[in-house]
Specification:
Length: 141
């Protein structure tokens, strides 16, 4: 870990790993932080027998970052239907009805993401027998 070398630190304590993620948090988006956490967790477990999944301050920090960014959980994305997204011409109104906290959430999407949504909808097959918005395609099936 270059961070430890640059900071002249030898341990993998929770405070050291937390400082590393605080520094990363100023440069990266929430989803990238979680990806880095996952990779670092696996690497430290295999190479140094260190389990950072038990670092409660670190996990709390990452969860706070997720809350601040308004991220959706994987199961919320899977359950999202075409009816949960309303195209209001200049913006989209996205509603997440079924969440872990049982509180409905909604948010507005505009700008370049509006065009990306429309491109995805255009490419989505019309004869689908599901109302799920996000689809998986393998070998054109």
């Amino acid at each position: 870990m270059d961070y430890r070398t640059n900071k002249n630190v030898t341990s993998f304590s929770e405070n050291v790993v937390m400082a590393y993620f605080l520094e990363l948090g100023s440069k990266m988006k929430y989803s990238t932080l979680w990806a880095n956490y996952s990779m670092l967790k696996a690497t430290l477990d295999i190479r140094h027998d260190v389990d950072i999944s038990k670092y409660s301050k670190l996990r709390a920090f990452l969860k706070r970052q997720a809350h601040a960014s308004g991220a959706c959980r994987m199961d919320e994305l899977v359950k999202m239907t075409v009816q949960d997204i309303q195209d209001l011409l200049s913006k989209l109104l996205v509603t997440i009805p079924d969440s872990k906290t049982n509180i409905s959430r909604s948010f507005i999407v505009n700008g370049m993401y509006l065009n990306l949504y429309r491109k995805y909808v255009f490419l989505r097959p019309r004869d689908m027998n599901t109302t799920r918005f996000f689809l998986s395609s393998k070998m054109k099936k």
